[in-house]
Structure to design on (390 residues):
């Protein structure tokens, strides 16, 4: 059986492999938080001069540049920074910029250029920018498709909603189509997702959907059978900016090793949408079926407290031994009915306080699709941009 395609690897704008030349500066994501689009790693590198460039050597078969543009319209002319992207000296194919003509609202995580089907091996990406104070150019992240045999550590991987390690364990989860991947969403209160990973941190990246409830909702997540942590699912304001990628929650940094995250949707309005998970320090391939043992991850070399599942396993063994000592016949019945214990999922059972809905939301719902029998809802289409040069 052939292996699945390796997961996309994210290289942040702060990656040590990137060489910036000219006048570049770094700015935190808080400066852009009012605009649509999630900023990877919490910062972007910006340029406002006509002599900025960068070089990024990589190993893989595809690469893209995600960032941000500031656009203005004067008369019939749309203005923004100019840039050119090259891989191994070859100029990347340009696509018309008519997609900018309909809006001047800034957006984060724009696809500024990309190429695919590169030969396997090392490559060099270069970027040349001509920007200004009025029309700056921003670099956020480089998504790269690595080689299948790559074994080196990677900073962060993209785990799609259809990845083998993402398990939809309760509730109804529907699939919404996009041009490159498929996300999953649920409006079932109590719907639950389980994800096993070998890494140090997880970011849940979501999207807005058309024809869905627009009020705010809530959810809970738990790591390694720990206490549930609440998070908000923002609604879509009527007349607000177009839906785009956004991070619903980011876990604390965890010790390197095998972990499990359990996410539960509480409702009551906007759906819980999974576009993808950004996982620091994870592998480029799924783990596949996982069974946790008593050797759970620990901090500073000290044995960790056993998880709830482990405590159940220990209690079962000890109880069975005592039962054997006192009642031989009872042991025979116990062994006959005993089933092999595997990793299971118990959805969160929220308290009354956790189930209390958020404050009333006054925005009106979007109109239904023209076909009342339609069961699949489409993600808000996002433009795909490529290189522009003058």
């Amino acid at each position: 059986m052939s292996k699945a395609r390796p997961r996309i690897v994210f290289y942040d704008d702060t990656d040590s492999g990137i060489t910036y030349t000219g006048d570049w500066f770094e700015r935190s994501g808080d400066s852009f938080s009012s605009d649509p689009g999630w900023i990877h790693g919490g910062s972007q590198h910006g340029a406002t001069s006509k002599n900025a460039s960068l070089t990024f050597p990589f190993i893989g078969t595809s690469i893209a540049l995600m960032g941000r543009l500031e656009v203005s319209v004067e008369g019939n002319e749309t203005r923004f920074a100019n840039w050119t992207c090259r891989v191994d000296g070859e100029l990347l194919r340009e696509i018309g910029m008519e997609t900018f003509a309909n809006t001047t609202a800034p957006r984060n995580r724009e696809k500024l250029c990309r190429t695919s089907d590169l030969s396997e091996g090392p490559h060099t990406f270069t970027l040349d920018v001509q920007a200004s104070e009025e029309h700056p150019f921003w670099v956020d992240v480089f998504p790269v498709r690595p080689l299948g045999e790559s074994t080196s550590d990677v900073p962060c991987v993209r785990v799609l909603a259809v990845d083998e390690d993402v398990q939809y364990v309760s509730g109804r989860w529907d699939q919404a189509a996009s041009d490159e991947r498929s996300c999953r969403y649920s409006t079932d209160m109590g719907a639950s997702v389980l994800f096993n990973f070998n890494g140090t941190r997880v970011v849940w990246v979501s999207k807005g959907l058309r024809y869905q409830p627009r009020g705010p909702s809530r959810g809970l997540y738990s790591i390694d059978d720990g206490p549930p942590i609440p998070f908000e699912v923002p609604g879509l304001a009527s007349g607000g900016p177009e839906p785009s990628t956004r991070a619903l929650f980011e876990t604390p940094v965890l010790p390197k090793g095998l972990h499990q995250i359990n996410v539960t949707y509480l409702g009551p309005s906007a759906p819980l949408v999974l576009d993808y998970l950004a996982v620091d320090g994870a592998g480029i391939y799924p783990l596949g079926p996982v069974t946790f043992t008593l050797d759970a991850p620990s901090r500073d070399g000290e044995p960790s407290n056993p998880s709830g599942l482990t405590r159940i396993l220990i209690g079962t063994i000890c109880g069975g031994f005592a039962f054997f000592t006192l009642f031989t016949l009872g042991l025979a019945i116990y062994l006959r009915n005993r089933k092999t214990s595997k990793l299971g999922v118990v959805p969160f059972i929220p308290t009354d306080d956790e189930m209390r809905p958020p404050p009333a939301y006054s925005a009106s719902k979007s109109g239904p699709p023209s076909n009342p029998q339609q069961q699949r809802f489409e993600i808000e289409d996002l433009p795909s941009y490529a290189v522009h040069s003058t």
In short: The first strand starts at residue 9 and ends at 12. Helices lie at 308-326, 328-337, 352-355.
